[in-house]
Amino acid sequence: MDLLQAGSEAFNEACTMLDNFTEATAGLDDIEELLETILNLLSSSSSDGSEKTKRRKLDADAEAGLLTLHSRTFLLLGQLIEHKDHVRAFDLYSKSHALASKIPNDDSIAVEPCVELGRYSFKYAVDEKMLDKAKQHLTRAIELVGEPTPTSDSDSNSSSKSDSKSDSKSDTNSDSNSDSDDEEDDVFAAGREAKMYLARLICQSSASDALARKHLLEMDYKYRLSPVVIRSSAGVVNPVEDETFVGAWDDIYSPNLLGRLQSCFLPSSPFFSEHKYNSPSCGYFSYKMPLPLKSTGDILTSAISRVHKTVCSRMPKTKRATWVEWWCHSRHHNDGHSLHYDYIFSDDKGGEGARHPLASTVSYLEADCGGPTLITDQTMSNGLSSFGYKVEPKKNRLLCFEGNRLHCVLPGSELPPSNDSRRVTLMIAFWEFDPGAPMTPEKSEKAFEWPGVVRSEYDEAVREGSIATDPHNNDAILRVDKLIEDLKHPESDVGPIDLLDDGIFTFFGALNSGLVIAKKGVCSLNCGGKCEVCRQTM
Q1: At what angle do helices 28-47 and 3-19 cross, to 10 degrees?
Q2: Containing domain of residue 384, as a range?
Q3: pLDDT tens, 448-466?
Q4: What ranges does the record list as Low complexity composition bias (predicted)?
């Protein structure tokens, strides 16, 4: 068996493992090991003198096949490991691109490495130089596909718009015998993805409104989130007064409890590492507890008790809650969370349909970077939005809002102070019905370390739970009356509109690698992949 055949068969095996991935089958470590084996095989062959002589005799197709295999293996391995070693992932993406660029008469293999390099440079940018690199890579990807990028004086033809990424990039990792039509579709999908990233980067830039409109119009969009929404530095008016669906408090936790919570949810903490947070296999996950709480003698229940009593003072209906659900996020500066509802599907005695929490909350544990939370007046029942509120992240701030509101997390609008900065948030939702999440493990759980950390004893529990009358901070909640900008008529007012309409550019989610292999649903609160959003995305 020759080198190309052996390597291709091993690569296809890795792709099959990804396609069939479940927690009960081979783990990501097994797939990673197989890809490392392929790289070692290719590297040892290229360094062997006799093999070099043999390769000089290869025909052009075989040589291109080896370059393609090597490039795609670097790329897939980078996508697999980025969540735990993003520095090495960048090196793998760079090697993938360098090899793909050597393939004669075929630019298509270089498209996806260009996209990943652009996305990576955007996600981890700490200076303007990295943002410029992101633009260069994304622009190059679009050029390779054959679609010109917009400039201040170009008149490019409109191209198709895609709101979502491909389900999995493993389909592009086929051998030289793959169907050419499928490969062409994958290349154009990567090109559309590059246009989406570039459009977002331009929209987040404070000096590119005209170019942003031109770019989005060429992608067939009609509207976008207005600059006053996207950019934290943009002015907003009319602080909330009478509206009761949103509230905010500063200094919600004592310094002691805040410090303990921050330790529980460090980016390097067992909670994130043991869940393989941000890995391609990690979908949405959360945990529940029954109310009233059996005890408030640990870190987690102390925080929940504190939040529950505070929110009840603003939203009395939250007193009806019989369940609490919680989860946590640790995001880079340029990572957001797309517009979504918090809900579950239920076919219980109450009938089928969506059910929402009584109230959803966000505790900002670390807030050195990242953008605001946007809460809109749109619900599933009214289907339209006229205005919204945004709350900037601030350490030890609590945000609450009615659980049926359409909301999102916006990416940061300025450069972060450092690449180590994170926006760490603890989400707590209060339900009148069982939210369907797994029960929160007890401290005695032996299979994982994280339950013992978050359920560690906390000796200030009683005192923490007794102060639920802190003044509400109206100044933290800023009303935004112009949520949407008409791309052709930016000065005009846009009436009530469905923010989930395909004609609105709202691509501001997390900038994770293009590889997604989890099948757990992507919206929120354990729909199990049954909602329309998940069916379209998965």
Answers
A1: 170
A2: 246-537
A3: 999 999 999 987 644 544 4
A4: 151-161
